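During the practical work, I worked with a single protein chain and the tokens that describe its fold, as given directly below.
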Amino acid sequence: MSNLIERLLSWGADQVTGPRPQLIQPNSQIIGPKPSARVEAPARFAWDEKRWTLSTDGDDIQVTGRYRVLDRSRNQWREFDGYLLQQAGVISAYIADPPVEIRSHRHGPCLQLVQSPWFRLHWHRQPKDLDGALLYMERMLDESFNG
């Protein structure tokens, strides 16, 4: 039995006394945070955000949709059919059957009946783009309902 123990001990000793492990020196690499990736939403027009639709005819551009404004006194959304037209750089805003409240707005008289039920907003100063026209009409409606 002592012979067996000697063999086991010598076998283990060979395993332990084998080649010395190689030391790995530390690397001088500095690890830091990577710059974060910048994710930006694609540019969208206000008429696109509000789900209006675009159509073109040559150089003419028309967007069609519904003006949507919260009437806070009634606590409900009010919607009105509308379209915006850009022809030769001239922008026109139209609204169908505008609400009676708009008559008391300071720009109420600027709405001109074109062909029933459509009214066109006459600009004192034309907006720079179709988004400006859309947002102006909605602001005018909001001021008519909510003061």
About this structure: Residues 46-146 form one domain. The chain has a mean pLDDT of 87. The radius of gyration is 37 Å. The chain is about 25% helix and 30% strand.
